[in-house]
Amino acid sequence: MKNVTDSFVFLGHWPSAGSFGLNTDILATNLINLSVVIGVLIFFGKGVLSDLLDNRKLRIVNTIRNSEELRGRAVEQLEKARARLRKVEMEADQFRVNGYSEIERDKLNLINSTYKTLEQLENYKNETIHFEQQRAINQVRQRVFQQALQGALGTLNSCLSNELHLRTINANIGMFGAMKEITD
To answer: What family name appears in the similarity comment (predicted)?
Structure first.
């Protein structure tokens, strides 16, 4: 510290006229040079530095403004997407409910249709059985009738004369015709 104060004191003892000297005190000369450079920089660089800082400030403000606009648009698009998602979810739920309802309705229709088909098949079966029973009864009747007729004819042929035989045949043909009309 003594050297710094000595250099300022030494500056005060310079001779006033005509001599030129070289100051070899490094600390004293550096301070002077540094203060001159800082002064020149402040005087001339003040405008340039303020312009650079203003430009940088404008770029930062513009970037922030653009970011805010982009964020606003992104929030808006997000809200639209959420609204679309809610709508699609509601439609999906509706389709799901309608699909389940339709499946249940189709299932009930299929069950009802199957029951109706089974009832019809049961009715057809019963009708077929009844028809076959009637047909079998009719066949048995016809055979019994034919056998009885053949037996009666055999008995009549052996016991009757020709005239009695013709009358009996005519009576039987009349009975047979009446029976045939009843069965038709």
So the answer is: Belongs to the ATPase B chain family.
Handedness of CA 56, 60, 61, 63 (dihedral sign): positive
Residue 52: both structure tokens together: 């650079």
Least confident of 12-21, 119-128, 139-148, 156-165: 12-21
Q: Quick check: 17 pLDDT over 60?
A: no
pTM: 0.37
User: How far apart are the C-alpha atoms of 26 and 3, rounded to whole Å?
Assistant: 10
DSSP state of 13: T
Nearest to 27 by CA among 8, 46, 47, 48: 8
Q: Could you tell me the maximum CA-CA distance found in the chain, to the nearest angstrom?
A: 201
The pair phi, psi for residue 3, each rounded to 5°, is -65, -35
